[in-house]
Design brief:
Blueprint (H helix, E strand, L loop, with lengths): L8 E3 L15 H9 L13 H10 L4 E9 L2 E9 L6 E10 L2 E9 L3 E5 L4 E8 L11 E10 L2 E10 L5 H5 L2
């Protein structure tokens, strides 16, 4: 019998506390580690590795910091690579501190994909699912992949698709 994983907590700094996004690594440090990483694992038919590299190289506003994540005393910084105009995300990363150097702990690619803290020590990758006639504003559903942190690495756990935004249920009950 395995013991339950420690709960994860998401942290979101206030606008006046911009340095919290950069602890321990600044966006420029994260950008450099991503450029030094094999990005073929997050490439899709819509966004090639070369296109992702071009966004990272040419667009300062295309690397977006997401709320951080902490589990078992280890902090992860979450980032997405997105288009500048509409913040359409096509790759997301969890970055950890590896003895003072940034390291990619988890990389996911997809269609409008974002990482967020889940329950019981998990990270959740939420991705929009578009049918051919869906406008960019309105995907037909969502794909959710959960990743558990175990023995110093993220391992894919459950995944499912939903015809609605999973956060919509939370809004209905409020």
């Amino acid at each position: 019998m395995t013991s339950p994983a420690p709960a994860a907590t998401a942290t979101s700094p206030s606008i006046s506390d911009e340095q919290a996004w950069e602890d321990p690594f600044s966006p420029s440090q994260v950008r450099q580690i991503l450029l030094d990483t094999d990005l073929s694992q997050v490439a899709t038919t819509e966004n090639s590795e070369a296109e992702i590299r071009q966004y990272l190289t040419d667009c300062d506003k295309c690397l977006i910091a997401l709320p951080g994540y902490e589990i078992a005393g280890e902090k992860f910084q979450n980032y997405s690579v997105s288009t500048a105009g509409d913040s359409y995300s096509f790759a997301s990363f969890a970055i950890r501190d590896d003895h003072g150097k940034p390291e990619v702990a988890l990389a996911v690619g997809g269609t409008d994909v974002y990482l967020s803290a889940g329950k019981e020590g998990s990270l959740v990758a939420q991705e929009a699912v578009y049918q051919p006639d869906d406008p960019m504003c309105c995907p037909s559903g969502w794909s959710v992949r959960m990743f558990r942190y175990q023995d110093g690495q993220f391992i894919q756990a459950d995944s499912f698709e939903s015809p609605i935004d999973p956060t919509q249920d939370q809004k209905i009950g409020q």
